[in-house]
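Thread title: Can someone regenerate the structure for this chain?

I was given the following input by a collaborator and told the matching structure tokens would be attached. They weren't. Posting the sequence so someone can regenerate them.
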Amino acid sequence: QLQASGGGLVQPGGSLRLSCVASGRIDSIDGMGWYRQVPGKQREWVATTHSGAGALYGNSMKGRCVISRDDAKKTGYLEMNSLTPGDTAVYYCRVVYDGYIYWGQGTQVTVSS
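Best answer:
Regenerated them for you:
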């Protein structure tokens, strides 16, 4: 239902753009959020895009990422810049639709020289 992509290996200071495509019964991606998780730690909120509240960012990547979405394509994006090794994690997208919570399968981001 949610397919995340765009992760990979990037050098410190580099950039990546993650994508998340909704399909199936998900007709709206309003409120799409991005989260990340490091093994052994809790999943951490990164950003959310909402029609009413706009773009909201957590402290972990505030100022270094931009969330956006294309409703016609049912695709959300997370543009990340100035990446550091501390940003290494699996990144997940999430949508709440019709009372259900949908998670993407996660895409690995590794920041290393």
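The mean pLDDT is 95.
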